[in-house]
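Suppose you are handed a protein chain with no further information: no name, no annotation, nothing but its sequence. What can you learn? This example shows the usual starting point.
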Amino acid sequence: MAENATAGLVDWDAAAGIGKRFAGPGPQVRPAERARMAEEFDDIVAEADSLVTDFTGLAIDGPASRPWVMTRREWIEQNLRGFEQVLEPVARRLLGRRMDGTMAPVRRQLLAFQVGGILGYLGRKVLGQYDLFLPPDDRDLIYFVGPNVVELERRFRFGRLDFRLWLSLHEVTHRVQFEGVPWLRPHITELMGSYLGTIDLDARKVLERLRRVREELRSGSAGEWRDLGVLFAFMTPEQRVTFRRMQSLMSVLEGHGNFVMNRLAEGRVRGAARMRRTLQQRRHRKGFNRMVQRAVGMDVKARQYDIGERFVAEVVDRAGPEGFARIWERSEHLPSLEEVGRPEAWIERVAAA
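A reasonable first move is to predict its three-dimensional structure. Written in structure tokens, the prediction is:
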């Protein structure tokens, strides 16, 4: 990893090593099979581009989508680069306060273990991704983690081309969202910057937040952060406001991705209903996997898919595609977290206005 301010916060080489060990190589995909996957995804993603843009009315501003069939190791390396980019301004601010001290090496290794462990776990699960943090020249890229795709195809006997088209419809929808809605990328970048700008690793403030969590548990006012994830409990009031806005936005984006994917799959993707059921069950596993999901916040991500898709489907059903399309007009038309759960409130405020 390149040396920059974030290297003072996280040992990126250690994080990469930990992530790759946690992820493992996955099922064997021979070079010839990977080459065939790349060729098939080229054709399938081109088809998905056409289907999604026609269905949504949103256009791709730039070249056609370009699939990258990756190994787990490559996926981890790419996401670590994204983390570096996002955390750079945070690192410059925090390290400017002379936080190095005797605990700096311990902090760097601890954060490396956390980041690497999370990416290692996700690297075993992720099928596809549209990466928001790529430079402009690479924003046509869509990632597909080859071993994970093959693993599900083999385990559940999904039709190879059908499953890959189904996945591509979802990921292409994300690219179309960010290419076809000019204000969306700056908006989410602003939200993330606002949140990251409030991060503070001062030990005294961390202890204050721990005391607040304990008080919330005692007073019985912890219901909201139990719904939004453990990390929400440790946020400041300012961070919680921004986090709720980010959660509502991500619920809409993921829900819209699933809605488009499933509507376009009707009569076009054989076995789509079984694919949908299988991935829903995979997202909501119980036991040890459920515990890990809660620890890394994946349970919140799983709810985003379900709640967001219900929101989109109900809005389209009540207000029509044209009514839902008003969501893309300006950021003020995005639903609040409460409106995501009550689509009729959003329709009254925006679609019916």
